[in-house]
């Protein structure tokens, strides 16, 4: 492949992803066409198919891009906290931040999730991407709580699922009734007592706990 084509490929892909998010949010995942995505990006169908095999693959690339951006933003804000401010309240304040642009992504991902519920193959593929997101989130939660001098008393993977469910369920209500429930309000009000209830003071806060040990202990107790 010519060097110029290789160097343009990341830019082409980025433009197609940005155009896809706009088209999917405006028309819906099913209604939006590949032609509309290409028109918004300023490329041909050939450029599209040299980067993506289908609209489903395009969405999953968007999913990974969004997940990486959100998780990287969380990690950056957490890393910037001074040692004395590594608390559950500080973590909640970070988790409760919802960018205005999140509404477009919510529209797109909700429609694809409904599609996946109806299509077992799409569900299987989406579940793999969800699992990678939760794994990274779970790792970050474990590290943060260790820095805060606490350890989980429940399996971290299950807590990650619950936090995702609270975020997605809360946003659904917020976008229907924004005046009654601003985005992030449920997290700000309830996450701190929740995290307090599912964690305990760590007897050795300077050493990060092994989440697998925490999970075994939790299962043995209950």
From TrEMBL:
Region (Disordered): 199-222
Keywords: DNA-binding, Repressor, Signal, Transcription, Transcription regulation
Signal peptide limits: 1-25
SUPFAM superfamilies noted in UniProt: Homeodomain-like, Tetracyclin repressor-like, C-terminal domain
Source organism superkingdom: Bacteria
Residue range(s) of DNA binding per entry: 33-52
Residue span(s) of domain HTH tetR-type: 10-70
Keyword Repressor: yes
GO MF annotations in UniProt: DNA-binding transcription factor activity; transcription cis-regulatory region binding
Compositionally biased residues, Basic and acidic residues: 209-222
Gene3D superfamilies in alphabetical order: Homeodomain-like, Tetracycline Repressor, domain 2
Protein name: TetR family transcriptional regulator
Organism this protein belongs to: Streptomyces tateyamensis
Lineage of producing organism: Bacteria, Bacillati, Actinomycetota, Actinomycetes, Kitasatosporales
């Amino acid at each position: 492949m010519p060097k110029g084509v290789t160097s343009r490929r990341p830019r082409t892909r980025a433009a197609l992803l940005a155009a896809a998010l706009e088209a999917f949010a405006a028309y819906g995942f099913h209604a939006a066409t590949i032609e509309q995505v290409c028109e918004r990006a300023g490329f041909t169908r050939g450029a599209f198919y040299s980067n993506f095999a289908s609209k489903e693959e395009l969405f999953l690339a968007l999913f990974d891009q969004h997940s990486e951006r959100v998780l990287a933003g969380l990690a950056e804000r957490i890393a910037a906290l001074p040692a004395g401010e590594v608390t559950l309240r500080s973590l909640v304040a970070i988790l409760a931040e919802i960018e205005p642009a999140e509404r477009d992504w919510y529209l797109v991902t909700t429609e694809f999730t409904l599609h996946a519920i109806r299509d077992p193959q799409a569900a299987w593929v989406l579940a793999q991407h969800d699992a990678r997101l939760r794994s990274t989130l779970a790792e970050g939660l474990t590290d943060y709580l260790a820095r805060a001098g606490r350890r989980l008393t429940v399996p971290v993977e299950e807590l990650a699922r619950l936090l995702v469910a609270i975020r997605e369920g809360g946003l659904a209500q917020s976008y229907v009734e924004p005046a009654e429930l601003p985005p992030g309000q449920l997290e700000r009000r309830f996450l701190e007592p929740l995290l307090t209830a599912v964690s305990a003071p760590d007897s050795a806060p300077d050493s990060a706990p092994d989440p697998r040990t925490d999970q075994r202990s939790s299962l043995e107790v209950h």
